[in-house]
Task: inverse folding
């Protein structure tokens, strides 16, 4: 930065640290935290009701003037000078595409009276992909900096309140005090997720966006299988407002079953969890993307959509299945139980993991070439209330794949790490990350450290010249006595916590994907395995090509197996395909599943039932069973759905893409 630029003095500060997103003040229990995740409903205003209107300059082109109008759904931008646009490009910014907003000030003495606010957006291009764009506006309507700063804060606060679903005062003053303190999130990153790009995508896309949104986070890279499971067993969960996995579905499976291994599992399982997709299947992320109202997406586009939803806050109850295996051990499932063709493809395609999501396409082709049938018995307890009929969903063009969406970047430089974790960013921000940790593609220098205090990056690169940026974020204020301190965080220790050792229960075997627990909710609908089922159950026996028990709507990011399913409908959706189906028909079923229209094909071998519990008894001596994509012991199993047992960070439902 130029030597004559200077930052604001500490004495001329207001509580800018409040200009951040929060899911509420720290609750005392996981259940309270889960309730606090959902923002209060917005005021009943029409989508086009003007909330704020003003005229501002721009940056860096100071000769331009713009009229801004903020509504509950969008920010309208109209150029006034030098020449009004008849059809303004980028003049409508839906709030669904906004990650955050910050206030800035000039470090030039000649511009000391002006204040600035910057809006971070991720609009979709003509070809559908999202790209980051920052719009900076100059507040210069008053003679003093204090007055201009108050106006900039008013706009930034109003925008952040709308993004978080917080009500604006009807006739009161809009001040930063309206926003609660930032949440504390634990990010768990599997650097080998998908095609091994998870860490690179996290640095390039996730960390900048959530920092723009004002989220406070710690980040840990997992180093081995079941590492996340061991970590969550030793956490003081009261110190975290949510745990977010940056990987595929497998890492979240570890986290949930790590909760199950704790003596306080009933409270721990209520801890809000989220997922940012950097894996191969990304089924839960596909369902979150659909819930948020976005078009189907893959690769980086899906990651940016889910990151935007996480930044906006909000959660829903998450149904979890308690699965009992033949040995009597149990595990929690948030996704699916699969047997036959689906589990065969899932496990046999592991050797093609370097292909990312394309591994399933190749695995499907190979599976069709050697199509097997399996004899078995499926029994289920029908749901008392049947769901609505399956609704077709819109799908992606088949030519659009993760391989074309995300070209492989150059490998990241090695990062120094401790034996436990490779990278931790502690609270509060700015973060002492290694210099290569936040790099901007195509930028000659790393991104500036991002601030939580109503400020943000110095925006180097947003206008071209990395060394010419005359703006800086308002400096942070000291944390108030009630705010959490990094020193108060519980140490994250290696190995099994003392609470488990003192309980007398053996710890799960590290490195085993089928490591399961004997704890969990009471399955009151299920008799013990091997005993007769009570009246009211339906039993099907015969030859099956596949059997799938799924909870959310998606089997993959682009496979909608149960288009009518919801996260909290309390149902397990059973889909099966009987023997006798041709390869061509089975292929048509999976192609139609991209749009969620496979039930409308009228295939006689395809069956569906909504259930509350089920039992699967394979009668073929060999086969593959998977729970959430993880292979488990082969043999009889049974499961019961437990409505709302967990909490999922989903963002607001049905984010509008265009304002009417």
Result:
């Amino acid at each position: 930065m130029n030597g004559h630029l200077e930052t604001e003095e500490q004495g001329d500060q207001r509580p800018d640290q409040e200009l951040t997103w929060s899911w509420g003040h720290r609750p005392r229990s996981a259940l309270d935290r889960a309730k606090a995740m959902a923002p209060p409903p917005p005021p009943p205003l029409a989508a086009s009701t003007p909330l704020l209107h003003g005229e501002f300059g721009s940056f860096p082109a100071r000769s331009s003037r713009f009229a801004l109008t903020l509504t509950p759904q969008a920010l309208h931008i109209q150029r006034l000078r030098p020449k009004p646009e008849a059809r303004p490009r980028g003049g409508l910014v839906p709030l669904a595409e906004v990650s955050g907003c910050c206030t800035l000030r000039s470090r030039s003495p000649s511009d000391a009276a002006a204040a600035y606010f910057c809006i971070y957006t991720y609009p979709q291009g003509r070809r559908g992909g999202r790209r980051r764009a920052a719009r900076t506006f100059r507040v210069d309507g008053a003679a003093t900096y204090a007055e201009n700063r108050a106006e900039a804060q008013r706009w930034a606060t109003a925008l952040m309140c709308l993004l978080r679903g917080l009500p604006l005062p009807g006739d009161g003053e809009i001040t930063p005090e309206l926003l609660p303190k930032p949440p504390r999130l634990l990010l768990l990153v599997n650097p080998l997720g998908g095609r091994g790009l998870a860490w690179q995508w996290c640095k390039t896309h996730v960390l900048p966006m959530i920092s723009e949104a004002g989220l406070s986070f710690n980040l840990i890279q997992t180093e081995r299988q079941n590492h996340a499971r061991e970590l969550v067993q030793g956490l003081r969960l009261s110190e975290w407002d949510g745990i977010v996995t940056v990987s595929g579905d497998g890492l979240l499976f570890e986290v949930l079953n790590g909760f199950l291994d704790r003596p306080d599992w009933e409270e721990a399982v209520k801890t809000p969890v989220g997922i940012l997709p950097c894996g191969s299947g990304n089924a839960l992320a596909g369902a979150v993307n659909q819930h948020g109202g976005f078009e189907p997406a893959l690769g980086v586009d899906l990651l940016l959509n889910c990151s935007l939803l996480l930044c906006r806050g909000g959660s829903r109850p998450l149904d979890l299945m308690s699965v009992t295996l033949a040995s009597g051990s149990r595990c929690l499932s948030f996704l699916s139980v699969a047997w036959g063709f689906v589990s065969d493809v899932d496990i046999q395609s592991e050797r093609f993991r370097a292909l990312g999501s394309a591994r399933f396409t190749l695995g499907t082709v190979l599976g069709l070439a050697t199509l097997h049938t399996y004899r078995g018995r499926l029994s289920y307890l029908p749901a008392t209330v049947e769901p609505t009929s399956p609704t077709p969903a819109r799908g992606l063009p088949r030519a659009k794949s993760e391989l074309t969406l995300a070209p492989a970047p150059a490998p990241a430089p090695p990062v120094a790490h401790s034996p436990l974790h490779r990278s931790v960013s502690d609270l509060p921000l700015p973060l002492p990350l290694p210099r290569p940790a936040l790099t901007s593609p195509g930028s000659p220098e790393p991104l500036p450290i991002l601030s939580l205090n109503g400020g943000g990056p110095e925006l180097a690169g947003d206008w071209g010249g990395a060394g010419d940026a005359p703006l800086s974020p308002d400096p942070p204020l000291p944390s108030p006595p009630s705010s959490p301190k990094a020193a108060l965080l519980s140490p994250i220790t290696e190995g099994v916590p003392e609470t488990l050792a003192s309980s007398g229960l053996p710890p799960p075997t590290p490195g085993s994907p089928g490591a399961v627990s004997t704890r969990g909710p009471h399955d009151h609908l299920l008799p013990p395995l091997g005993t007769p089922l009570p009246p009211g159950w339906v039993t099907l026996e015969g030859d099956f090509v596949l059997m799938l028990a799924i909870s959310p709507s998606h089997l993959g990011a682009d496979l909608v197996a149960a288009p009518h399913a919801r996260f909290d409908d309390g149902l397990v959706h059973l889909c099966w395909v009987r023997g006798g189906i041709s390869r061509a028909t089975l292929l048509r079923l999976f192609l139609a599943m991209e749009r969620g229209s496979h039930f409308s094909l009228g295939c006689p071998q395809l069956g569906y039932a909504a259930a509350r519990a089920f039992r699967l008894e394979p009668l073929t001596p060999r086969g593959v069973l998977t729970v959430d994509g993880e292979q488990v012991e082969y043999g009889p199993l049974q499961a019961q759905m437990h409505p709302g047992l967990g909490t999922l960070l989903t963002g607001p439902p049905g984010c509008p893409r265009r304002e009417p």
